[in-house]
């Protein structure tokens, strides 16, 4: 099928990019074979997770230009679906995760239809509103453990359990999320070349012109939103079995939504590498800041102060993010 | 019955203060099409300003308004000249995320300086005192006084916008930027001024609110949402809209009170079983969503 | 059966009638120009036909089908394409990608869309500019890009909105050639809004004149240039004296 061929075809990237990316990819693949600290591994796993979160966001937020600050609710849907399925009915991850996606996509269609009547800051705030409402509901809903959340006890299962994704060592989780990461990149590669991707970019460019070219704007946005929440829900499911302890405040918070949008924007919203770069910069920054400044600094929000400042600087001077700077330099050195 | 009336009055009083909170946002939006995500954080700054001034000087909290207003004005102007004026040149995404970054920074600076615990006022002329205004309705004295002051501040700002030369210049810039420029109005300075007045207005509201609402670095978000809901309902850019919408939203926030009234009066168990207070803010979020879908222009607004 | 029929079209904005009872027909293969002073309602007419606005009253029938008020995407899919006078672009898509968006209306395959777009660029003389950003191009090239993009949707009828605005004489020649190619070789029916009279007079088979929302004249370029109503409203004495022999039209 042409779609699959497109997903694997990276030939329109510059040679340098392809070589660098392949190198990093190989390094990440081999990473667990060398001595590593648990901390480093956890950081890289976080990097993969947030790359995927941001890639999903990037479809509607970057290519589509609709800044969505409510993605955390879908991480929650994925996480809770997987956990509840496991705890109540012993459903393995590989079944519960797709179920989570289905629920997430259905929910996204339900609120997407009205939501995409809005644009700009109105849309952003409305997306926050929907996410907070869902979180509030989860905080009192006994079925999902309300505010205390739910926990998975590894001792109840026999790790390494590949069906339920319960492991004792992080390295198993590493390769699972790495696999998803690779799939995510392929999916994004397909997306940016696909009809839907082009439609979105046209919409972002000029909606009236897009409509005159036969594009049904609202429907295109809703479809893309469905794609975005798929990414987020999958990672949410993974998060549940990795962390084994979820609660609304941690899984569905506004802070998570902000972080997702932030990474894509900082790396370069609307570009292919943007989300990965953004996650690649912000996750290590966050983790190592906490290490150096001590846990107290994390409590005091020092890392977030720095993010806030970075975001302000980028918004003011280079809204196209790090990738925007790279492209600018490229254009200058070539011409 | 008195529970119902009590909730009603409480909601309206709160609504007056919320109107003031939203007023700042609507002024800024009216003059330049930018929406301040850090609006709630400005309010938080006002709350801390009011609290700390009262504690430091022993002044009754109600007299800390001028200090809060000054702090807010300076904060607004600094934010404009240091950040927002650059954001205005960029795409809308940049504007959104820029004020977002401001929100993060302010919130966490507060966390750094003040810690995460709730703080509230314990002294003051009217703290803890209540009035009986007849029909068995008990009204907290602070709430009443704050509402009165909120109205005064609201009227003051309205007069500023409509009766003073500077205010008229601001309104002119809001209505027609190019035209104002041709008239010789320095629009750049008008922008900074709008942020200053907007900031000062909301910090004043903060200094008032802290009399009955405790402050911590995280209160900003809910007030941002409240402010947006008020402005969405009243219409972005409309001052009278902010007033009436504030009252409505104040009532919305009293829904738990009305709920309790209905569940007690009609003895409805199922109503009592639902932990309605947990949803106190949820109604605000839902209200925002519904308002934006039905009538993005709001009641009085001219900008979409 | 006429390709396009406009019946008693009225478009009012509040109290102002931008289009007031406009009717005309367009046959397959026609090349019609709509002219008129500024504010005559030409662009509003286009927008009503192309589905951007729903008319206040009246009907638009395309290919025998009533398309009144069905919305721009639906109109485009039925084979009615348009260009835009002022193209405000975010600068995100390059020329080739722009045209590809048009191609994607007819195909779901990126490879086919790309091939078709490249073919169109070559046809419109834009082959080398494929990777350029639209907003960095000179105006004349931008106009051809918008034409190429509209053509990518394989329309039966193409509406060109002031496509010669801002062009110098040699560029106008160029765009005339493009229009002739589209009309002649591709067989697309064309309808233009224009202010540039050389283009109108040289290329149109028929002309419609609007003034204050009403249609005040219809006919061949020669006929309308002699029509006293039109002269009074729009053309001006000098042009008629210089270009139209034995006009017989008395100046106002």
What does this structure look like?
By secondary structure, chain A is an all-alpha fold. Chain A contains 16 helices and two strands. The two termini of chain A are 39 Å apart. With 304 residues, chain B is an all-alpha fold. Chain B is globular, with a radius of gyration of 19 Å. The mean pLDDT of chain B is 82. Chain C has 252 residues and is α/β, with parallel strands linked by helices. Chain C folds into two domains: 177 residues, Rossmann fold (3-Layer(aba) Sandwich), CATH 3.40.50.300; 70 residues, no CATH class. In chain C, the strands form two sheets. Chain C has a six-stranded mixed β-sheet, sandwiched between helices. Chain C has a four-stranded antiparallel β-sheet with strand order 2-1-4-5, with helices on one face. In chain C, helix 4 packs across helix 5.
Layout: helices, strands, pairs:
The complex is a heterotrimer of chains A (335), B (304) and C (252).
Chain A: H1 2-8, H2 15-30, H3 38-63, H4 72-89, H5 93-115, H6 120-140, E1 150-151, H7 170-193, H8 195-205, H9 207-212, H10 217-243, E2 245-246, H11 248-251, H12 254-268, H13 274-293, H14 295-300, H15 302-317, H16 321-334
Antiparallel strand pairs in A: 1-2
Chain B: H1 2-31, H2 39-57, H3 65-87, H4 92-114, E1 130-132, E2 138-140, H5 141-163, H6 165-175, H7 177-182, H8 187-209, H9 219-234, H10 239-253, H11 255-265, H12 269-273, H13 282-294
Antiparallel strand pairs in B: 1-2
Helix pairs in contact in B: 1-5, 1-8, 1-9, 1-10, 1-11, 2-3, 2-4, 2-8, 2-9, 3-4, 3-8, 5-6, 5-8, 9-10, 9-13
Chain C: E1 4-13, E2 16-26, E3 31-35, H1 42-50, E4 57-62, E5 65-66, H2 72-77, E6 80-82, H3 95-103, H4 110-123, H5 139-152, E7 157-161, H6 169-184, E8 189-193, H7 197-203, E9 206-211, E10 214-219, H8 221-226, H9 228-235, H10 237-243
Parallel strand pairs in C: 3-8, 3-9, 6-7, 7-8
Antiparallel strand pairs in C: 1-2, 1-4, 4-5, 9-10
